[in-house]
Design brief:
This protein is an all-alpha fold. 61% of the residues lie in helices and 0% in strands. The chain contains 24 helices and no strands. It has helices at 90-116, 123-141, 146-159, 165-172, 175-192, 195-204, 210-224, 231-248, 253-270, 279-292, 298-324, 327-331, 338-344, 355-372, 374-377, 381-392, 402-407, 411-429, 432-440, 446-460, 468-485, 490-500, 512-518, 528-553. The protein starts with 89 loop residues before the first helix and ends in a 9-residue tail after the last helix.
Length: 562
């Protein structure tokens, strides 16, 4: 890729230390084997390229030397970059202790109220609410693994007799779990061919300005939501493309910083496009199915979520450009060498699709079409996904072996989903959710006030509960009966909450894609203050978009509020 300017000299490319790909390995594979595609070496020092600011000077708007990507001092150095005393971890321990004390006090208050107060709840309801409060406190105030907390809470409910063992273990064999397993296997088969990287490079190479580049990157990232069913997986998939762009734009640090924010932002906002875009979506659909007898299918979710994903992602691109680039950056001409970008991003060479890529595209297209048409043919989405997964891993037609594909399935996420689904079932079956909503239904305020509160709480929930799936597991079981008590459509309220909860950009720890792009070895990206600056404008904008869709757009697409 070359960056050309009107009347300016094009800076030279630096060599890329990537693992060579033999012609027979680029974009195809032997039947039943995984192609030997490797990403660029992220630890090589040559990712820091000439053309950055001179020694002793910062890139515009960045912290002084001696600061790390998170805004803290580098180990063993003070703010001026000179060796100094190493900071201790005592303040961190104190914060952890304070959070733990707050959590214990909160759970104690809930326990005292449930056991002493005249709640009118049966014993199962009290036990469920107490276990649920402990789980939420553990998610919010401790560093315990989310899956460990969810499994412990579900097991405790089984031991207390609120849940049956078959209900807990049956959740592991549910169609939601099988859908996600098969979707990850399908994604592994498609990703092994390099097809997503080829599409991304082909789109980005068409850019002739920074604004065009930002929006073409946005289009490419939205498309990846249909190929990879996890935001962290999508971030890892497109990281080599970002690194290639960063190398070519090394003399324009503001643009590189803007792109480093744009990639995770669009990945997170565009996940709402599909049912398999995030585990939280499947949890919401499962909870709706358990509580009301009807979930949200792939086709309906696509119809509702894709317009929001496209509009919010492109709006975010404009916000990033406005906040982190100057007009001179945006009007300066850009020329991208597609072949060079493809080599640096380790994508298949340009030209006709390889046989493996064509097979993967056909399987993915047929599976997507079958998911969308589920109301007409009646074949469950999980069955369609399983069939597609078997085809993509078959000995003759497949692009990846079944063993390596299964190795990439996030089993921890699946266990978390099963456990939280069991928690949601307990909340509903024990009467705890109905009791909660009965005490909240009298708040009133009208549909607009209620929806605004749902959007606001769901948007801000990432500040307390970092897991996207955990946020839906906490909010949706309460919102479904509350919506019914207020005469609203539970599916509409649950979808609004899940869509709003997809915003999680405030801190590097808020989401895995944000953390991945916050610390890229050898490439300067963004710092904590950049995220706060972006979040301050993007959070209310995204919340307003979700609220507007709920009131104006989604009722015309088959999701009325009443």
């Amino acid at each position: 890729m070359k960056v050309a300017t009107d009347g300016n000299t094009t800076p030279p490319w630096t060599s890329a230390r990537t693992v060579p790909i033999k012609p027979s390995q680029a974009g195809t594979s032997q039947a039943g084997t995984t192609p030997n595609r490797t990403a660029p070496n992220l630890n090589t020092p040559n990712l820091t390229t000439p053309g950055r600011d001179a020694p002793g000077r910062d890139a515009p708007g960045r912290d002084a030397p001696g600061r790390n990507a998170s805004g803290g001092n580098a180990p063993g150095r003070n703010a001026s970059g000179r060796p100094g005393r190493r900071r201790t971890a005592v303040p961190g321990r104190k914060r952890a202790v304070v959070k733990a004390v707050i959590g214990v006090l909160g759970v104690g208050a809930v326990a005292l109220f449930l056991l002493v107060g005249g709640t009118g709840l049966p014993a199962d309801g009290k036990a469920t609410l107490l276990v649920f409060a402990v789980a939420v406190a553990a998610w919010v105030f401790t560093g315990l693994d989310d899956t460990y907390v969810a499994l412990s809470a579900a097991l405790l409910l089984v031991l207390l007799g609120v849940l049956g063992g078959d209900e807990l273990f049956g959740a592991l064999g549910g169609d939601t779990i099988w859908l996600l397993i098969a979707a990850f296997v399908l994604a592994a088969g498609v990703g092994a061919t390099g097809l997503p990287a080829r599409v991304a490079v082909g789109l980005v190479a068409r850019a002739r300005s920074v604004r065009q580049l930002a929006h073409l990157v946005t289009v490419a990232l939205v498309l990846t939501a249909f190929a990879v069913p996890a935001t962290s997986g999508r971030a890892a998939l497109v990281l080599p493309v970002f690194l290639a762009l960063a190398k070519g734009l090394a003399d324009r640090p503001r643009v590189v910083r803007a792109l480093s924010l744009l990639f995770p932002t669009v990945i997170l906002l565009s996940a709402v496009a599909t049912l398999i875009g995030a585990g939280a979506h499947l949890i919401t659909s499962h909870l709706l199915l358990t509580a009301t007898g009807a979930g949200i299918g792939f086709g309906q979710w696509l119809l509702l979520g894709l317009p929001l994903a496209v509009i919010s992602s492109h709006a975010a691109a404009e916000v990033v450009l406005l906040l982190f680039t100057r007009r001179s950056d945006r009007v300066r001409r850009l020329r991208v060498d597609a072949d060079r970008l493809g080599r640096l991003a380790n994508a298949p060479r340009s030209g006709h699709l390889e046989p493996a890529e064509r097979r993967a595209l056909i399987v993915l297209g047929l599976a997507s079409a079958a998911w969308i048409c589920e109301p007409w043919h009646g074949v469950p989405a999980a069955v369609v996904a399983l069939a597609a997964a078997l085809v993509i891993t078959s000995p003759k037609l497949g692009t990846v072996a079944l063993g390596p594909a299964l190795a990439g399935v996030p089993w921890s996420l699946l266990l978390f989903m099963a456990a939280t689904a069991a928690l949601g079932t307990a909340l509903t079956g024990s009467g705890a959710a109905a009791w909660l909503t009965g005490n909240m239904a009298g708040l009133g305020g009208g549909d607009l006030v209620f929806l605004a509160a749902v959007v606001g709480v769901s948007t801000a929930a990432h500040l307390l509960v970092q897991s996207r799936s955990a946020r839906s597991s906490v909010l949706v079981p309460v919102l479904i009966p509350l919506a019914a008590a207020l005469g609203l459509n539970p599916a509409a309220v649950a979808f609004v909450s899940t869509a709003a909860a997809g915003f999680c950009h405030t801190m590097p720890s808020s989401a895995k894609p944000v953390a991945i792009f916050a610390a890229v070895p050898g490439t300067a990206t963004y710092i904590r203050s950049d995220l706060l600056k972006l979040s301050a404008l993007l959070a209310p904008l995204n919340a307003a978009l979700v609220l507007g869709f709920a009131l104006v757009v989604w009722p015309h697409l088959g999701l009325p509020l009443r």
